[in-house]
Amino acid sequence: MLDVTRLHVLVAVARTGSLTAAARELHYSQPSVSHHLAKLEAETGAKLIQRAGRGIRLTDAGRLLAERAADIIGRLDATSEELAAHVGLRTGRVRLAAFPSALGTFIPKAAGLLGAAHPGLRLELMETEPPEALRLLRAGRADVAVMFRYDDTAPEDNGLHMIHLFDDLSYLVSSTPAGGLGSGLAEYAGSPWIAGCDRCRSHLLDICDKAGFTPRISFTSDDIVAVQALVAAGLGLTLLPGLALTAHRHPGVHVTEVPASTRHVYAAVYGEPPHPPATEALVKALRESL
Questions:
Q1: How far apart are CA 244 and CA 233, in angstroms?
Q2: CB 169 within 8 A of CB 270
Q3: How many angstroms separate the CA atoms of 257 and 27, rounded?
Q4: How is 41-94 classified by DSSP, letter by letter?
Q5: Mean pLDDT value across residues 26-30
Q6: Which helix (H) or strand (E) covers residue 101, if one does?
Q7: Taking CA atoms, which of 176, 211, 234, 243 is between 20 and 30 Å from 191?
Q8: pLDDT tier at 19 (50, 70, 90 boundaries)?
Q9: With the C-alpha atoms ordered 264, 268, 273, 275, is the resulting torsion angle positive or negative?
Q10: Both ends of the chain: CA-CA distance in Å?
Q11: Which one-letter DSSP state was computed for residue 27?
């Protein structure tokens, strides 16, 4: 059986890129780090580290084991938190990964509701887009992920329990009034466009394709403040969901609802119910915040 302490050492070396930095992070001596790695190589029968000039690098086997070890350690940490949570919600923590406009709108209210109901429960927040939030969830480094998907988004992996929170309409954001979209987005086929995060960009490409054109993307940013400032300056059009416009609305932009362009917002939890009490308490607070 692999030693968890040695897996921690390998993950630290993979993350920091050197024995010295890993030793500093773990508060070990460098010889101790080398000793743990040598023992791990003996346990696995695989060469995990090789010299590269004055430094080191992981072998293919080392990278594979480090990736698996990070997931294992994350799940062990999550299990420890779950066991503590079963004792009660007087103490402990619950970790939430969420995209920026959710953190800027309803999540602060949810945090307040959670804190009022369970004062001893510590909420840890992480800002990240859906693919990374789901990766953190699968690795046991987040307990709940607030994420979004469009109808044209690829299906999520198995093993996730998706709790629908609400649907979020999309809007065409422009520097001048667009009126209605009687002929759809096709009337803006010749305009420059500003794209957002990878998932939003993919949706923009898909909805424009359905309208019969490929958008000419002049700039890409997931910063809704910067994107709206660029639109207000006449540098392009963009699509933004209502939640993003609630989080920030530039005074110089105009918005027009785009039919058939709705994103669905979920609270995702790893595994099927029943979930740990702290996780259930957070999901309850998220629902009540809306």
A1: 19
A2: no
A3: 55
A4: HHHHTS--EEEETTEEEE-HHHHHHHHHHHHHHHHHHHHHHHHHHHH-SSS-EE
A5: 82
A6: helix 100-103
A7: 243
A8: confident
A9: negative
A10: 47
A11: T
**In the chain, what percentage of residues exceed pLDDT 70?**
94
Please write the tens of the pLDDT for every residue from 191-211. Answer: 999 999 999 999 999 999 999
Q: Locate tokens 């920091």: which residue?
A: 16
Q: Does position 90 have pLDDT exceeding 70, yes or no?
A: no
Inform me whether the pLDDT recorded for 180 exceeds 80.
Answer: no
Angstrom distance (rounded) from CA 126 to CA 124? 7
Q: Return the pLDDT at 77.
A: 72
Residues 128-142 as b/e (b if ≥16 CB within 10 A, e otherwise) read bbbebbbbbbbbbbb
Q: Supply 165's token pair.
A: 């929170």
Q: Which of 46, 47, 48 has its CA nearest to residue 9?
A: 48
Which tokens hold the place of 10? 């390998």
pLDDT, tens only, 207-252: 999 999 999 999 999 999 999 999 999 999 999 999 999 999 999 9
Confidence of residue 85 (pLDDT cuts 50, 70, 90): low
Helix axes 277-288, 107-117, angle to 10 degrees: 130
pLDDT at 125 over 60: yes
- For residues 142, 143, 147, 152, the Cα torsion angle rounded to the nearest 10 degrees is 90
Cα 67 to Cα 121: distance, rounded to the nearest angstrom: 30
Burial class of residue 183 (count of CB atoms within 10 Å of its CB; 0-12, 13-18, 19+): exposed
pLDDT of residue 275: 85
Give the whole-angstrom CA distance, residue 120 versus residue 11: 31
Q: In what order do the strands lie in the sheet containing 254-270?
A: 122-127, 93-98, 144-150, 254-270, 160-174, 238-241
Cβ(36)–Cβ(11) below 8 Å: no
